[in-house]
Amino acid sequence: MEPIKVWIVEDDRDWLRGLTAYLGSQEGIEVVFTADKPDDVRIALAAESEDADVVLMDIMLGDVPEGIALAEEVAECTGARVIMLTSMEEKDLIFRSFQAGAIDYQIKSDFESLPDAIRAAARRESPISSAAAERMREEFRRLKRMEREFQVKTMQDLITPSELQLLKLIDKGYSQSEIAGKLVVSIRTVKNHINHILKKLKSKGSKEAAQQAKELGLLDKDT
To answer: For residue 124, how many other CB atoms are within 10 A of its CB?
Structure first.
């Protein structure tokens, strides 16, 4: 069986040498290329000098997270599976790495788990470790919370109290004529308010607008 061809991109030269020696001693793994600068990686990509099955990419290169953009380039050019290396769990950087095409990440201090991660990546099995998957789920949940909070704040800024009251009545099933009678206004006024709401929320209809507000918790069911 052919050994797994591994690239290592790491700007700490001492750690790079140590990791190269460690992985080189592992059965079925061959380190075929190392680099401590992004430019060296791009030169290798342009020259197509070495194939890669798995690439270990340091997120931080030269005190900036250039490894993220480089991971995308490497994945596109070589088709290799990219595992990000990081000294600390910076959730935002890790999330951006996955968006760039990385399939896993490993904490440098846990370097002894790298051989198994490399083999799994090469087999295209369990592309994201359980720890990484859980952190991804946490990040998605955080982003969904932020999105919801933004939507609530946006709607609160857009919708006036009187328009919100109208949406509550629509949600309760009142017709436009019933709403006009309840609020002691003309049907024309009700229709104008509804049109304003639809434009603000970019909704297709009054029921959809009321549902939007309800899903965001803006409609008091007891009112």
So the answer is: 9
Cα–Cα distance, 51 to 29 (Å, whole number) = 14
pLDDT tens digits, one per residue of 158-186: 888 888 888 899 999 999 999 999 888 89
β-sheet bridge partners, residue 83: 56, 104
Q: Which residue's structure tokens are 């909070």?
A: 149
Q: For residue 79, which of 42, 54, 50, 96 has the smallest C-alpha distance?
A: 54
Q: Of how many residues is the chain composed?
A: 223
3-class SS at 59?
coil
Provide the pairing of β-strand 29-35 with 54-58: unpaired
pLDDT band at 134 (very low <50, low <70, confident <90, very high): low
Prediction pTM value = 0.58
| Three-class secondary structure of residue 129 per DSSP | coil
Give alpha helix (H) positions in the chain.
Answer: 13-24, 38-47, 66-78, 91-99, 114-123, 130-158, 161-171, 176-183, 187-201, 206-215
Tracing tokens 């059965």 back to the chain, one arrives at 27
- The answer to whether 29 touches 115, Cβ cutoff 8 Å, is yes
